[in-house]
Amino acid sequence: MTKVDPWADIQGKVDYDKLIKDFGTEKIDQKLMQRLEQHAKHKGLGLHHFLRRGIFFSHRDMKWILDEYEKGNKFYLYTGRGPSGDVHLGHLVPWMFTKWLQDVFDVELWFQMTDDEKFLFKADLSLEEANRLAYENALDVLAVGFDPKKTKIFVDTDYAATLYPLAIQIAKRLNFTTTKAVFGFSGETNVGAIFYTSMQSVPCILPSVLAKRNIPCLIPYAIDQDAHFRITRDILPKLGYYKPAAIHCRFLPPLTGPGKMSTTGSSKDSTIFVTDDAKTIRKKVMRWAFSGGKDTVEEHRKHGGNTDVDMAFQWLTYFEPDDEKLAYIKRQYESGELLSGELKQILVDTIVPIIDEHQKRREAARKVLPQVLLKDRRHS
Ligand code: TRP
Hints:
The chain is an alpha/beta fold. About 50% of the residues lie in helices and about 10% in strands.
């Protein structure tokens, strides 16, 4: 079984149902989806296709979050990014969903940029570079379309005077035996890394501390981050706060096959960055996307392709929101009418406009960024 923790290079098929069992989370069921759909309807929106297709598949305490919301006790959203390089399409998945949640519930988003984390966990990344990347990546976050009036972004080392006193409240209740058991740390692990979960926990209480009243927190994230929040959820009630609720997504698999896309691991060349141009995207898809098609055109026409393993099709389940269109493509491919190269071209035609749009909004975000930044140290 593939190991799923925050720092593993995840390769091979991930058994998501098993993760629900192992991590003790709950599957997103029809009832919860219907409830979310009702809220979306109020805003003239539909249920997000990530929910319809099980890409967001698991949660903790979503029912509680909705109960409170319906009683008038609004939650806020919290998510984050460890800035270690350029943003790729896989990163956009939880952020796109977070934007949908912000639109549906009209709530604040608190977004943490963990330059400290990436500095501590990456042997060859300087703090200066991690900090620079944090501000670059913040543009990509805004490009997703969050409401600037309801969004706050902060970079850990530039907001440390605010974060640190809260981090040590948490750190005092977290012992080495626990982090070691959860993350597999050893005697060789640097002590900054051991401390780090306390920093990632702070945004689960920060808005409550600042508002001087407890506010429910909902964290959307890819399931590999769950280890941190299992710890956070144990500690916060002891400090008098709510446990944060969570909603979890699968990883966008690499074009080359199942697993988690990574900029450092095996799938680097095939990764599609949000900074890639149309030509590069086409080249990468054509060259790398694992095909579920048959070896020859004749065979393919006769037997059709396998959409379960075909990565161009799998990616379309993430980026083509139209269910009917997707079903039509599936039928065409499985019947052999559509060839593998044609299916790849459909994927290219689907993601190029998404990335084009992203790049435009990313440029526009330069003006907005100063308005949403929280910091207690000037960025030089
Ligand atoms: N640890 C995350 C990463 O490496 C960054 C992060 C910080 C985060 N806070 C978060 C991710 C909250 C999801 C939710 O990318």
